[in-house]
Design goal:
By secondary structure, the protein is α/β, with parallel strands linked by helices. Helix content is about 40%, strand content about 15%. It has one domain (about 5-315): Luciferase-like domain (TIM Barrel), CATH 3.20.20. The chain has an eight-stranded parallel barrel with strand order 1-2-3-4-7-8-9-11, surrounded by six helices. It has a two-stranded antiparallel ribbon with strand order 5-6. Helix 3 (about 80-95) crosses helix 5.
């Protein structure tokens, strides 16, 4: 059984709208939502980047059944893992059984702001594994004294905790990261339906999340223009998106990205068959949770379309 979710884009929408979108997603019948946790938008056109933990408090109070996860938090530089543990545990007390902590190794764009060197992936992977271990100890209510390779925790205990710790989903954009997710995570999160990542994760019992990018509009040409204007970074190749340090650098990098390039990775327009086919590709690749990211300002039109044409097919 596949779960269809909704992607809350902190980079495109201000905090009050994110809360409203979460409510509308619940009303429309989406099973869950994943909310991005960044300090910057990718490009100036997107224009937002709220502090996700404040937004999650609002979502917790405004929704009743929607499961929500961070997609994803980087607990290795901008945040110390002890702070992430406290924040996540608090949110989990506000939405019992409905919160998931998604974690990953981050992007230089958001993490370099605290003035630390941006390390190679292998180092960041070590940091993430150590961070997840600290978070799990704090979720358990332990008094933590930790003097590790990358982090120090002195006499820390998280007192405000849910009865059951939230699951920790680990991002894996390639086989190496997926193997790490398989070792330390309660589930996998990816941002493209790559079957090789599922193979490397190596487990069909734990949940496997993937983001599916769309731009619904009544006119396909309009949707393509919106997708190119708002979200051209999804068409950047390889690992480039992890290493550029500033918004201006992303704007330079996407200067040669075309509408056709973006339309290769974002389903544009009002044809329900194309949206259904895109979700099916995610399922066929091995993902059992698919959260849909509607690019652009017309979220209400998207919700009406998915409530009418798409979600009933998966009930």
């Amino acid at each position: 059984m596949v779960s269809i979710g909704y992607a809350l884009s902190s980079e495109e929408h201000p905090a009050p709208e994110l809360v409203r979108h979460a409510v509308r997603a619940e009303e429309a019948g989406f099973d869950y939502a994943m909310i991005s946790d960044h300090f910057h938008p990718w490009i100036t056109e997107q224009g937002q980047s709220s502090f996700v933990w404040s937004v999650l408090g609002g979502i917790a109070q405004a929704t009743e059944s929607l499961r929500v996860g961070t997609g994803v938090t980087c607990p290795i530089m901008r945040y110390h893992p002890a702070i992430v543990a406290q924040a996540a545990a608090t949110v989990a007390t506000m939405m019992p059984g409905r919160f998931m902590l998604g974690v990953g190794t981050g992007e230089a764009l958001n993490e370099h702001i605290v003035g630390q060197r941006w390390p190679a992936y292998e180092v960041r992977a070590e940091m993430l594994e150590e961070a997840v271990d600290i978070i799990r100890q704090l979720f358990a209510g332990d008094l933590v004294r930790h003097y590790g390779t990358h982090f120090t925790v002195e006499n820390a205990r998280v007192y405000s905790r849910p009865e059951t710790p939230p699951p920790i989903m680990v991002a894996g954009g390639g086989p190496q990261a997926a193997r790490l997710a398989g070792r330390i995570g309660d589930g996998l999160v990816n941002f493209a339906p790559d079957p090789k990542v599922i193979e490397a994760f190596g487990d069909r019992e734990r949940p496997r999340f993937v983001q599916f990018n769309v731009c619904w509009a009544e006119d396909e040409a309009q949707a393509r223009r919106t997708a190119r204007r708002v979200c051209p970074t999804v068409a950047l190749p390889g690992e480039l998106g992890q290493h550029l340090p500033g918004v201006a650098h992303y704007e330079q990098a996407v200067s040669n990205v075309t509408e056709d390039d973006v339309a290769e990775v974002i389903v544009c327009g009002p044809d329900p068959e194309r949206h259904l086919a895109g979700i099916q590709r995610c399922i066929d690749a091995g993902y059992d949770h698919v959260h849909v990211d509607q690019v652009g300002p017309d979220q209400d039109g998207f919700f009406d379309f998915y409530e009418r044409e798409i979600l009933p097919k998966f009930r």
